[in-house]
Automatic annotation (TrEMBL), chain A:
GO terms for cellular component: tRNA-intron endonuclease complex. GO terms for molecular function: nucleic acid binding; tRNA-intron lyase activity. It is an enzyme of class 4 (lyase). It comes from Apiosordaria backusii. The active site is at 231, 239, 270. This is tRNA-splicing endonuclease subunit Sen34. The keyword Lyase applies. Gene3D superfamilies: 3.40.1350.10. InterPro entries: tRNA_endonuc-like_dom_sf, tRNA_intron_Endo_cat-like_sf, tRNA_intron_Endonuc_cat-like, TSEN34, TSEN34_N.
Automatic annotation (TrEMBL), chain B:
GO terms for cellular component: tRNA-intron endonuclease complex. InterPro entries: Sen15_fungi (IPR042777), tRNA-endonuc_su_Sen15 (IPR018593), tRNA_endonuc-like_dom_sf (IPR011856), tRNA_intron_Endo_cat-like_sf (IPR036167). Residues 15-160 form the tRNA-splicing endonuclease subunit Sen15 domain. Coiled coil: none annotated. GO terms for molecular function: nucleic acid binding; tRNA-intron lyase activity. This is tRNA-splicing endonuclease subunit Sen15.
Length: 299, 160
C-alpha cells in the first residue's frame, strides 16, 4: 500500500495556470498541496495550516490542509499574476446549476472519465505490485519445496486440494478506495472561474511586500505580541529575527509601546521592527516604506 | 519661549545629566538643526555600545588568526541620543525626519580611511558601513531613563 501511494504521486511539474485561492466566509484558503508547495518555494509564503480531521474536529495540534492566507498575502500573489481569488460560494452554485445543462453533461462525462482513468492506473499499479509480491513468494517457495514434498504423504487426513474458493477470493481482492482530496476535477485546468473583480481584491500592504521581496517569511506575530514574526528564510530553518508591527505614516505610537515591544523582543533574541508606508508626497514613489528596528541598548 | 520648547529643553537636560553622571559619558553635545524635530545629543560612551552581528563575525575571524588570547581592542565611538518623554507619541513620519536629518556618524567621529577598512574589515562597521542609529532615551516622571537602540532600516538583531 505504502509503495503504491508513493508510486501514484510522482514529482509533478508545477501546475500550469494561476493558483486558485478560495475565498470562503471571508477567509483565503488553499486546498491543493501542489499550490502550497509552489507558494512556499517561489513566493516565500508559509501561511497557516487550518484543516483538522472530520473524525476529530476538536484536535488542533496537528493541522493539515487547507492553509489560510492573510489578505495581504493573497493580494500579493494576485499582483504577481501567480494566483486568482475565487469566490467559492457563487462559483459553486454556478457550477451546480451548470450540471443540469448540456455543458454539465460533458463535464460529468469528463469527470467520470477522469475517475475511470484513475481507477485504471490504480489497478495497473496494484497488479504490478501484486505480481512483484507473488514473484517474491514463489522464489521463497522454490527454496522450501523439497520439504513440502517430503512431508505430505503420511497425513492424508489434512491433505486438501487447494480450494478453488480461496483462489477466487484472492483474485477478486478489493481495490483501495480512492477519495479525491480536492474538487479540482470539476474545474477546467486553465480557467479562472469565479475570480473576483479587481476592485473587490483585498487591500495590498506595502509593508508586507517590503518584507516578502527581501526574502523574509512571516508568520502571525501574536506569540510575540506583534502583527508578524519575520524570519530571514523558511521558518523550518531559521529563528525569527523580528517581531514586526505595521503602522500608518502619521499614526501616533505611544513610547510605552515601543519600549515594551523592544524589551520583549530583546528577551526573545529578536528585534522589534516597525514601519509604515510613506504617504504620497511630491517626488516620492508609491510603495516607499520606512522601517525601524528597536532593541535594548544594554545600559 | 513656548511651553513646548521649555519641556524639550528640560528633557534634554535630564538626559544629558543622566548620561554624564550615571553612565559616565563624555564629549556630550546638544545638537540642533533646522530640519530636526527637536534637539538631539551626541556623546562618547565609556565602552562600546553597539557591535553589528556581521562585524562581530569579522572580529572573531580576525581574532582566531591572532595569537591565542589576544583580543582586538574595541574603542567606543560617538553615538546619537534622542531624548523623549514616556508620555509622548511619535509617528513613523517623525522618526523618519530624525533619521533623514542626521549623518550616520556624529560630527567629530574618528575618520577611517578606505585603506584601513581594507586591512581590517571590521573597521568598516565604524566607517562606511555604519548604518544610521540613535539611542532612544525615554524619560519617565520619576527621572528613570531607559535606553533603546533604534536603527534605520532592517538591521538584524544582535546575538546577545
Amino acid at each position: 500500500m505504502a509503495a503504491m501511494m508513493t508510486s501514484t504521486q510522482p514529482p509533478q511539474p508545477p501546475q500550469p495556470g494561476p493558483i486558485r485561492i478560495s475565498l470562503i466566509a471571508g477567509r483565503y484558503l488553499l486546498f491543493s498541496i501542489d499550490s502550497v508547495m509552489e507558494i512556499r518555494r517561489k513566493h516565500g509564503l508559509c501561511c497557516v495550516l487550518t484543516g483538522t480531521m472530520p473524525q476529530n474536529p476538536t484536535q488542533n495540534l496537528f493541522l493539515g490542509l487547507p492553509i489560510e492566507l492573510r489578505a495581504e498575502e493573497a493580494r500579493l500573489l494576485v499582483e504577481r499574476g501567480a494566483a486568482y481569488i475565487a469566490d467559492e460560494t457563487s462559483d459553486h452554485l454556478a457550477k451546480l446549476k451548470e450540471m443540469s445543462s448540456e455543458a454539465g453533461d460533458k463535464r460529468r462525462e469528463a469527470y467520470l472519465r477522469g475517475l475511470k482513468e484513475k481507477r485504471r492506473t490504480a489497478k495497473r499499479l496494484f497488479n504490478e505490485e501484486k505480481a512483484a509480491v507473488k514473484k517474491m513468494h514463489e522464489g521463497k517457495r522454490k527454496g522450501g519445496s523439497k520439504k513440502e514434498k517430503a512431508a505430505p504423504a503420511t497425513d492424508s487426513l489434512f491433505e486438501s486440494p487447494t480450494s478453488p474458493v480461496v483462489e477466487a477470493a484472492a483474485k477478486k481482492e478489493v481495490l483501495p478506495a480512492i477519495t479525491p482530496s480536492t474538487s479540482s476535477a470539476l474545474l477546467d485546468k486553465d480557467s479562472i472561474s469565479g475570480a473576483i473583480a479587481d476592485d473587490e481584491l483585498p487591500e495590498s500592504s506595502a509593508f508586507y511586500r517590503y518584507l516578502n521581496t527581501r526574502g523574509y517569511f512571516t508568520t502571525p506575530g501574536l506569540r510575540f505580541g506583534g502583527d508578524y514574526s519575520a524570519y530571514p528564510g523558511d521558518p523550518m530553518r531559521y529563528h525569527a529575527h523580528f517581531l514586526a508591527n505595521c503602522y500608518s505614516w502619521n499614526d501616533k505610537i505611544p513610547m510605552l509601546d515601543i519600549v515594551t515591544s523592544g524589551r520583549l523582543g530583546t528577551a526573545v533574541k529578536k528585534s522589534f521592527l516597525f514601519g509604515a508606508e510613506r504617504e504620497e508626497e511630491e517626488g516620492k514613489k508609491e510603495g516607499d516604506v520606512r522601517m525601524f528596528c528597536v532593541e535594548w541598548a544594554g545600559m | 519661549m513656548t511651553l513646548n520648547h521649555q519641556r524639550t529643553e528640560a528633557l534634554t537636560k535630564i538626559v544629558l545629566n543622566n548620561l554624564q553622571h550615571q553612565h559616565d559619558w563624555t564629549h556630550l553635545h546638544p545638537h540642533s538643526q533646522l530640519n530636526l524635530p527637536r534637539t538631539v545629543i551626541y556623546g562618547l560612551p565609556p565602552k562600546r555600545l553597539y557591535v553589528h552581528p556581521d562585524e562581530q563575525v569579522e572580529i572573531i575571524k580576525a581574532e582566531k588568526e591572532m595569537r591565542a588570547g589576544d583580543r582586538i581592542p574595541q574603542e567606543p565611538e560617538l553615538e546619537w541620543v534622542l531624548p523623549l518623554h514616556l508620555s509622548e507619541k511619535w509617528s513613523p513620519a517623525e522618526f523618519a525626519a530624525v533619521f533623514d536629518a542626521i549623518d550616520s556618524r556624529p560630527p567629530g567621529s574618528t575618520e577611517i580611511s578606505p585603506e584601513e577598512e581594507e586591512r581590517s574589515p571590521w573597521l568598516a562597521w565604524k566607517g562606511s558601513r555604519r548604518g544610521k542609529r540613535v539611542l532612544l532615551a525615554t524619560v519617565q516622571d520619576d527621572s528613570t531613563v531607559t535606553y533603546y537602540w533604534m536603527h534605520d532600516g532592517l538591521v538584524k538583531p544582535r546575538q546577545n
